[in-house]
Specification:
single chain, 209 residues, mainly alpha
Length: 209
Amino acid sequence: MSEQPQPPDAAPPSKTSPPLEDEAESRTSGRLPPANRSFFVYVEAALEWLIFWSRWIQAPLYLGLILGSVLYTYKFLVDLVHLWREVNHMTEEMVMLGVLNLVDITMVANLITMVVIGGYASFVSRLPVEKHEDRPDWLLKVDAGTLKIKLVGSLIGISGIHLLKSFINVDHRPHDQIMWQILIHCTFLISALLLAVTERIIHPPHRNH
């Protein structure tokens, strides 16, 4: 039998797909065409940069709290001078109330300092105080959970001071007001306990095996 002539070699298929096929493939796969991909990458990077740097919006809030602590310091000095001048004309009960008022102002100022330093270090920027000799002990570990527990502890102290002032001056305070102060104080105590338990569950202590 005579061999049939072989057809001429066909041209090799093109390795590059037509633009229409590329566009259809991009639509079905969810990927952007190369021309649009660079634009959206730039928009994404700009949006992420804006979101990251938006944390500095909180900086004026902490500056305002610092000014608030200055006002509390002024109030402390005014009450201290008044107590110093009138101490000879006061009863022991009145002196105790005046001192408790100074303690109250001091604890509120401590709370403001804790919020400013802890909040700034947790949500705005790190503070380079790792090797500072005057660094407070509570700054060894500052995160959102620890900060909340310390804040609730400070609120319990402030509430306790107000409750003690009410007990000292119980003859001149309505009983309903004292009852509400006791309920609020107990609410702070329960909140602190629940926060501590939640923090322990989320971050359990490491045990050495």
